[in-house]
Specification:
Length: 127
């Protein structure tokens, strides 16, 4: 509760750029009257895993980009990736962001049953 109040006050003061007592009082009133959003509790372990995946995805994205430049990929396919059960919308968004961040893959659809449809390109398979 206090964290939300402080965040709202900071945003109010940054938006108005006015530190008068009247403006601060208006900001306090608005901060207290705004409804607090419902947040789902996420496990710290899930957040740590997503942050690590994000940090790993950055160099992977560079490597894939150079690979596509020097060895163009001709083969495309749609694969299904399983979503971990009971993921919050924030973690689902970050999962989709990580998949789409790399140049070879993009999420085309999120299925409510617990799957991502991922379009990916690959080098031509040798026959």
């Amino acid at each position: 509760m206090i964290g939300h109040f402080i965040l709202r006050m900071v945003i109010w003061l940054l938006l108005t750029a006015n530190f008068s007592w009247i403006n601060i009082l208006i900001g306090v009133i608005i901060s207290l009257l705004l409804p607090r959003g419902v947040t789902s509790p996420d496990k710290l372990k899930d957040w740590v895993q997503v942050i690590i995946k994000t940090l790993v995805a950055i160099p992977v994205a560079y490597m894939e980009a150079f690979e596509i430049i020097f060895r163009p990929h001709q083969h495309e396919e749609i694969i299904l990736e399983h979503v971990k059960p009971k993921r919050s919308p924030n973690l689902v968004f970050l999962d989709i962001f990580i998949i789409t961040f790399t140049p070879k893959t993009i999420v085309t659809k999120y299925r409510e049953e617990g799957w991502y449809e991922v379009h990916q390109i690959q080098p031509r398979k040798k026959a």
